[in-house]
Amino acid sequence: MGCTSKYGPIILCHKPKSKKIAASYAERKIGYRNALEWLQEQNCNNIGFLFARYKSPTTSVTLQTYKEIYEEKVRDEQIKTGAVSSADGYKLGPQLTQFDAIFANSDDIAANVWRWFEQQKIPKPIIIGQESLISGQVLNIPTVNNHFQQVVLVHLNWLFPKKFSN
Questions:
Q1: What CA–CA distance (Å, rounded) separates 146 from 43?
Q2: Residue 123: pLDDT above 70?
């Protein structure tokens, strides 16, 4: 199973359309569902979403899961793109004051959103990060753990079976 190129095997990090292509990926929807249901229990109805870009598998599954939980589409003004590096969380801070919750695409970005609110001395919304990184742990920010370390180990085992197998 799988495809190869002149450089070696090809392994996708997202669900492929064809079963002939090797893939190992995080099933994000489960964690997103848990996080959004928890936000709903906290009476958060105006959630800001931070994404790297508008069109991506991550953005699509997040918006679809929100629609399933809240039974409405995310409004355009709830979506902020350009959240790629941790510094982007700080830069986006001024655009996030109207939300009662922020769903960031990483703990590092979430930590810098938290830092922006802290420095402005204004009440923070609930801020959720992703990937269970040390930055989120230090600030006690709720996180969605997509278990990317396990996904990477599967990839490495496929590529280098003698080095990474038990």
A1: 24
A2: yes
